[in-house]
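Researcher: Here's the sequence for the chain we discussed earlier.
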Amino acid sequence: MNTSQLLAVDLLLSVLSAGAWIGAAWMTASLRDKSRRMDVALLLLGTAVAVTVGRYALLPALVAGSWWFASERITINLPLTAIPAAWAATAGVPFLLRRRNTGSKPVTSDPGRSSRSREWAVLAMVAAAASAIASLALTFILGPFPSLWSLVVVLFMMAASVGIARLALFPRSGHVTPPSGASRASRVGRRPTAAAAVAGLMICTALGSGVFAWLGSRSADGATIAAAVGHHGGAGTPVKDPTPVTSLVGDVSADAVVRRYELTARVEQVTLPSGQTTEAWTYGSLPGPALEANVGEVMEVVLNNRDVAAGVTLHWHGYDVPNAMDGVAGATQDAVMPGESTTYRFTAAQTGTYWYHTHQDSAEGVRKGLYGTFVVHQPTSARADTDIVVAGHDLSGLGLLGSSDRGSVHTATPGSTVRVRLINTDSVQQRYLIQGTAFKAVAVDGTDVNQPQEVTGKLVRLGAGGRVDLAFTMPVLPVTVRSDAAARAAVVIAPPGSAAADSEGANPETVPAGVFTTTPVLDLLEYGKPLDGSQPVRPITREEVMVLDRQFRFVDGIPRYAFTVNGAAYPLVPSMEVAEGDTVKVTVVNRTSEPHPMHPHGHHVKVLSRNGVVPSGSPLILDTVDVMPGEVWELLLHADNPGIWMDHCHNLDHAAEGMMMLLKYQGVSSPFVHGGHSHNRPE
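Model: Thanks. This is the structure I predict for it:
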């Protein structure tokens, strides 16, 4: 059983535990005589104890996956639930067994003692039930890093629940001579009033906490991003003259070749090769115009917005541009609204396969078509005879490979070299099948693989935003590239004059059922060869942990079952603050049931390990790390590109629901605001 499954079992046991404790307390409190209720109460109590113990038995296995899968379960959950559970077991089991044997008769000759025994058992079970519910609150609300005040609130709620139960269920305590007349009636009448008062206080506490959380979720609306002043929580001397992101434009050579492009964002009806018509937001085509440059040249791209009401930007995914050119609304610029334009200008300093997309309301904008491809070549290196860029995308349920939802054909002479650049522009994983030839994965996320080997009989899996370049020598028969995300589309590379070369736009045959689920996947951590010789090692100056989870949170004032980082949803996620020159070890822990392709802007990271296993192949340098459920990745990030950068899940719906944070360099600030009058929405 893997870690993700263990977490699911733990959650199931948590729910069963809470239900069993509540049921046992209710049945015990309502006992009247020797009846089936007694057996049911004993059964529920036994189930509650067994399930609670079962949760504790899972902890060693969770810790084996990573301490972060069990951190709050051990430090908070264990004592929180174990003490009430032990009390309930030791008080409840003997009472119920004695009562089962004696029925409604007093257990002892002392009625007061019998009454106290029942009260003690019921209150213990109420405490256990309250602790089990608190355990669920820890999972769904508090998260891995609960604040002290939130723990105090939880403990108060538990104590108040026991207090209300005592006041409501036991109007007399012990064997006491009751007062006579009005005095006794007054004393009994005060108990419901006290119970109502405690319940009211609990409700007010819950509402107050909710209002506090709601206000926090709205705190970034219209607020600028302050300069980071220290490594931890912003502690340090205030920055007197912070550097604005607008000044971080990089160096551009005056005599460099300039590649000029102009893109116009628009809303249009698009007719695909299949004949299907759908509304799309585009940069003029699907995908947007293919942008290319040679390393050392200057990219100058003018972006116009004709009529996309949500606004647009251009973010250069995976390309480490200067911060001012990063294209994130509310962080490095304002969104470009209808009728407006802006210009991006930077030196193409990296070779490889990349892509661009809007970073304004991008969960919707990218899905609807605001994306395109960007390739930078090394002019001193030999290029493939046939170089094909394939962007996989889901457009309103229509799977595209490149610009087609059917077959698209490219020709290549047998014996010539072919390079296919696969780009996942979607928000979910894609699996690619290459039929008709062996291939090599020569580059990943724009970085060359050292000594790639030939691959046959394996799929290539791309997380959202990821890229892989495949190379092969053209055989005499056609080669077909397919994706599980585009069942009716295919890219065919065929010899000139062949029947396949004349089948442009044809509806390709679908692959046999189960191919994408049964064919093994190429593991890039084991692919290629390690670099020879000693490589320079930078000492680690800081360590950070990113625990990816789900909790109930307010996001932009709306209650959601949000995707969180370290227990918080953006904009309340504490920033990762660095100084230029830092080398940061980042541990990413996925405690959810879904993949999270984490994408730090402006930087690449080197993979140190996955689930404790060090890569055995070529060094793996990524800009989008697809962290699967239950996985732990250790990454190395070198802080060499000053600015304020987004670091977020590239399942853009997850980012829009909270899984997003900032990577902030000390002394850098932004004049742009999230939301407000500028309508900036980075996701």
